[in-house]
Design brief:
One of its GO terms (molecular function) is carboxypeptidase activity. The chain is of the alpha+beta class. The chain has a domain at 694-757: Trypsin Inhibitor V, Chain A. The protein contains 25 helices and 24 strands. Strands 4, 5, 14, 15, 16 and 17 form a six-stranded antiparallel beta sheet that branches. The protein has a five-stranded mixed beta sheet with strand order 2-1-3-11-12. β15 and β16 form a beta hairpin. α5 (144-156) packs across α8 (190-200). The chain is elongated, with a radius of gyration of 40 Å. Mean pLDDT is 87; it is low at 1-49 and 774-796.
């Protein structure tokens, strides 16, 4: 390979002058190490002893810390959610860099890289001569090793003083860089140095390292770079800002062609190929650099992930250390998000609540039994433009993760009183007369021990003018009857439901305002994620699992840094949770507040509405997903406001309700994700463990009395057999019917009476009298006499 210096036409006197300078420098320094020489003339004012002492006082080598790399947040299926970085870099081994990229960078920056040591005297002399002839800097004199040292010092500088020292124009810096360059050449291979250099270098427009540059400018990988792509990237290193092709395409074009010409001049590529490539355009295919959650496909889930990890002391002693790890550790953050669920949630909240509405729509999806957060979404996009409805507040998660203080959850809290009542042994058939309004003495409600008695009185009102009447735990819950729950909570006390709600994930931390008899109506503040987590406990048959958005952190080599397994504990006996699920399924049946919402598989739930509809809630769940949706009034100042009298999502809200106002959000998501959910039924509560479970009377017609008795007792009923026999078409001695009859629902433990057939069917019902006389035929038809009995339809 010929030396281009031989072809340069530089006046001999200038060449001799520069050679003289270099000779003087080498003489002053007294340093010649493996053909190395110092490439600067500014040291002429230094004594040789001072320079020698400076070299001797430096450490023998420079510690190379891991390079800052971007971290990726990925969904459950591995698809990207967001990228976090201080420096947008993805390290790659040299074997994953295209040969033409290596050739291009060596050709333009240090063409004798593999032939010289830490400094290239011949290349330095060439650069001095060329730059002097041109009257400016045309070619660099530093070797790739020296450049790598400078980049390393700058990358590892943490303080402003260290940053100044890494960039100052001084002899001391040059001496330091040379000393470290010598050490690198002694301790590492050329390939190692080139690899680190390619991963360290800044390529402009916010990207560091050749892999990130390839992805950003050409949407490809470093190993697939073509000649003209590689030449453009190699040309950027000298002046990443000035040659930035996104800002200065003409300068980038010229610089790229200089690299191509240089490669031809060095016989790396044929001249004909160089000329052909130089005529082509830049061929950019930009992949935008999207740093942070603002550019995420799930911005507020991403924000939740980041805040969740920033609270983990295992990731650093301080919040700053943890943030640095997330932004420079090259981590792969594996999350629980299901993109299908996220898309459904986003679409639903955006359909029913507009960004600029005086309300916020939000929904959270949590998996029972694992606590995995499958999606969170809200109607206000992430951003700083308030006039467009944007917000940086995450309204879906608890305050410590998002900034919102939460909202009153209304009657969703009745489920905690219900569960407490069942756990206390109160039969599900317990009945209270529940009038439209009810006066109570607050001293009748038990407080937590040591907190004193409640004082005063309260008048409870049913929502929506609900009429009074006798209600049991099924019907009182389905209709969300306030005066029924006022009486049920009087039996349970306030302390136990309050503690249960906390154990199930609701962040109650202000007992002075929350631990009150009106707790059952949703006193206190909560987020959709907390309510979804709590109801997921019912779906998991009493096992509470803390919400978690992350499953594992992997380093850049795909090794597990930390796992985030589920954190679960049993907070309710299984039979109690089964009974709660049984009761809450009634919400979707006739008489329930959610009746009419689409139910595509066994589903339980609860609505919630606060006074004056400041917030409306609907929470529905199956054994494999719990979803809590909310629409809360928030005025322009960010304060709670009534939904009533406002247009929300294009719908005028006269009097908001949990099912009517917010239920459609829940229903839209459920409809979209149901095809992805296994159709799993709830467990039927055990009549042996739970008193007063409402059970359907099984059909036992035609069975022997003994077999029928066993079937009914297994279903939880008390059984008696009536004396004598009745008319029936079933064989004599078998069961004719029961009372209550087959298909009827009644409380477990209720009495069911078995009636035995005599084998003769009952007489048919009398024929209706004819409206007018008909002429009889000449031949009379004989009649058949039958005995009473029939098809065993049963009496009710």
């Amino acid at each position: 390979m010929s030396d281009p210096l031989d072809d340069d036409r530089i006046p001999p006197n200038q060449v001799l002058a520069h050679l003289g300078v270099m000779a003087m420098v080498a003489a002053v320094l007294g340093i010649v190490v493996a053909g190395l020489a110092i490439p600067f003339a500014g040291v002429l004012g230094f004594a040789a002893r001072d320079v020698s002492d400076s070299m001797n006082n430096l450490p023998e080598s420079l510690e190379t810390k891991p390079l800052a790399q971007a971290s990726r947040i990925v969904a459950k299926d591995g698809t990207p959610i967001a990228t976090l970085y201080d420096e947008n870099r993805v390290n790659v081994p040299l074997t994953q860099v295209a040969t033409v990229m290596r050739q291009a960078i060596i050709s333009i920056e240090d063409y004798r890289f593999y032939q010289h040591g830490a400094i290239d005297l011949k290349g330095t002399l060439r650069a001095l001569a060329t730059n002097s002839a041109a009257g400016g800097t045309v070619q660099g004199g530093s070797s790739i090793t020296q450049q790598m040292v400078k980049l390393t010092l700058l990358s590892q500088a943490k303080t402003k003083a260290e940053q100044r020292a890494a960039t100052e124009q001084s002899v001391a810096r040059k001496i330091k860089e040379l000393r470290y360059a010598i050490a690198f050449e002694e301790e590492h291979s050329k390939d190692w140095i080139l690899e680190r250099y390619l991963n360290l270098a800044y390529f402009g427009d916010g990207v560091y390292g050749v892999q990130a540059a390839a992805r950003h400018y050409f949407s490809t990988d470093a190993k697939r770079l073509t000649l003209r792509q590689a030449a453009l990237l190699a040309g950027l290193v000298k002046n990443p800002v000035g040659y930035d092709p996104t800002r200065n395409p003409s300068k980038a074009f010229d610089r790229r062609n200089i690299v191509i010409e240089r490669m031809a001049q060095l016989h790396v590529i044929p001249v004909a190929k160089a000329k052909a490539e130089a005529k082509k355009g830049l061929g950019l295919d930009i992949t935008p650099s999207r740093n942070g959650c603002m550019f995420s496909r799930a911005p507020f889930f991403c924000d939740y992930v980041v805040n969740y990890l920033l609270k983990d002391p295992a990731l650093g002693a301080s919040r700053e250390e943890r943030k640095a790890l997330l932004q420079s550790g090259g981590l792969t953050i594996k999350t629980t998000l299901d993109p299908r669920f996220q898309d459904a949630a986003d679409e639903a909240v955006q359909r029913y609540v507009y960004p600029t509405d005086s309300a916020v729509g939000a929904i959270a999806l949590v998996e029972p039994g694992t606590g995995a957060v499958r999606a969170i979404a809200q109607s206000r996009p992430m951003g700083l433009k308030a006039a467009r409805g944007e917000s940086m507040i995450n309204y879906v998660v608890p305050p410590e993760y998002g900034g919102s203080g939460g909202f009153q959850p209304g009657s969703t809290f009745k489920a905690f009183v219900l569960a407490t009542a069942i756990r206390d042994g109160i039969p599900l058939t317990t009945t209270f007369n529940s009038p439209p309004q009810l006066y109570t003495n607050l001293a009748d409600y038990a407080n937590c021990p040591g907190r004193g008695n409640f004082v005063g009185s309260h008048v409870w009102h049913n929502a929506g003018g609900e009429q009074g009447g006798n209600r049991n735990l099924y019907t009182g819950t389905a209709g969300s009857i306030n005066t029924f729950y006022a009486q049920l909570e009087r039996k349970t006390g306030v302390c136990k439901p309050y503690k249960l709600a906390k154990a199930m994930g609701v962040g109650l931390d202000n007992p002075g305002n929350e631990l009150v008899p009106t707790f059952t109506l949703g006193v206190g503040l909560a987020s959709p994620l907390e309510i979804a987590e709590a109801y997921a406990t019912f779906g998991a048959r009493g096992e509470h699992c803390a919400s978690r958005p992350v499953t594992a952190l992997l380093d850049s080599n795909k090794n597990v840094v930390k796992s985030y397994p589920k954190q679960c504990s049993k907070v309710l006996p299984t039979p109690v949770a089964d009974a709660v699920n049984d009761v809450l399924q009634g919400v979707f049946k006739p008489g329930g507040t959610g009746y009419g919402l689409p139910v595509l598989q066994p589903t339980a739930g609860k609505s919630g509405t606060t006074n004056e509809s400041f917030a409306t809630w609907f929470t529905g769940y199956t054994p494999n997903i719990a979803m809590s949706a909310m629409i809360a009034g928030v005025n322009s100042a960010g304060h709670p406001d009534s939904l009533n009298g406002h247009s929300i999502g294009g719908r005028y809200i006269g009097n908001g309700s949990g099912a009517g106002t917010t239920g459609p959000i829940w229903a839209a998501v459920m409809t979209a994700i149901a095809p992805f959910l296994p159709d799993i039924p709830f467990h039927v509560p055990s009549a042996e463990d739970i008193k007063g479970v409402i059970v359907t009377v099984p059909a036992v017609y035609g069975q022997s009395p003994e077999q029928a008795q066993k079937t009914l007792e297994d279903a939880g009923f008390t059984v008696t057999i009536a004396g004598g026999q009745v008319d029936s078409s079933y064989p004599q001695g078998t069961v004719a019917y029961t009372s209550p009859g087959s298909g009827a629902t009644t409380g477990s433990g209720s009495l069911v009476t078995i009636y035995i057939s005599d084998g003769t069917p009952p007489p048919p019902p009398p024929k209706p009298k004819p409206t007018k006389k008909k002429k009889q035929s000449a031949t009379a038809t004989p009649t058949t006499t039958t005995k009473p009995g029939g098809g065993g339809g049963g009496h009710h």
